[in-house]
Amino acid sequence: MNFPDLAFYLFATVAALSALAVISVRNTVHAALCLVLCFFNAACLWILLQAEFLGLVLVLVYVGAVMVLFLFVVMMLDLNAEKLREGFARYLPVGATMALAMAVEMLVLLRAHGPAQAVIPVADPAAKAGTNNTAWLSQALFSQYTLPFEVAALILTVAVVAAILLTLRRRSGVRSQDPAQQVRVRAADRVRLVKMAAEQPAVDKPAIEEIAR
Fold it and tell me: Could you give all domains of the chain from N- to C-terminal order, each with its CATH number?
């Protein structure tokens, strides 16, 4: 068994354990950190399989954007938010452990990944086409797999709309706006013009002379 195979089993094991921790830990922030570690190990597996573009997209999109969305949804739920804000220090050991594990895995990935090393000896379609895997993936995605790509985009759009509807509810003590009521507003209901006759105030001449003195 060579070093890339060992790296593959290492990343797969850590990804499985971190995914199990996501659904087993009780703390929401710890679960989010474990999910970040799971995404990172999945990206390492893609890079080992000579799919560098998919690995980088997984880190940028899922770790950088989807995790923020997950935390937003968690904060919108009816959880005990006071315990989540008790302090930064109690989350520091878990975060430092995750960061150290990812740093070690990056070193292992740099050692295991190479142009002539692949975990699974399969024929590379990008090499057969005489191009890199990023160009081949874009051509295949928007030509051969256009319909599945559009269906996936539609499903994600429906999921976004459903998430907004789930968090859109009335709460006591929270100010909200009604766009329909704002659109129906007329200027006559908000502004009233009053005509008043202009009158010149009476001038008290003795008082003015007393001030001048």
Answer: 1-121 (1.20.120.1200), 123-169 (no CATH)
CB-based contacts of 52: which residues, under 8 Å, 6+ apart? 46, 133, 134
162: confidence class by pLDDT, cuts 50, 70, 90: confident
3-state helix, strand and coil shares in percent for the chain, rounded to the nearest 5 = 70, 0, 30
| Residue 201 phi, psi (nearest 5) | -65, 145
Round to whole Å and give the CA distance between 56 and 12: 17
- In order, the DSSP letters of 100-112 are HHHHHHHHHHHHH
Nearby residues of 21 by Cβ (< 8 Å), 6 or more positions away: 30, 31, 34
> What global pTM score does this model have?
0.60
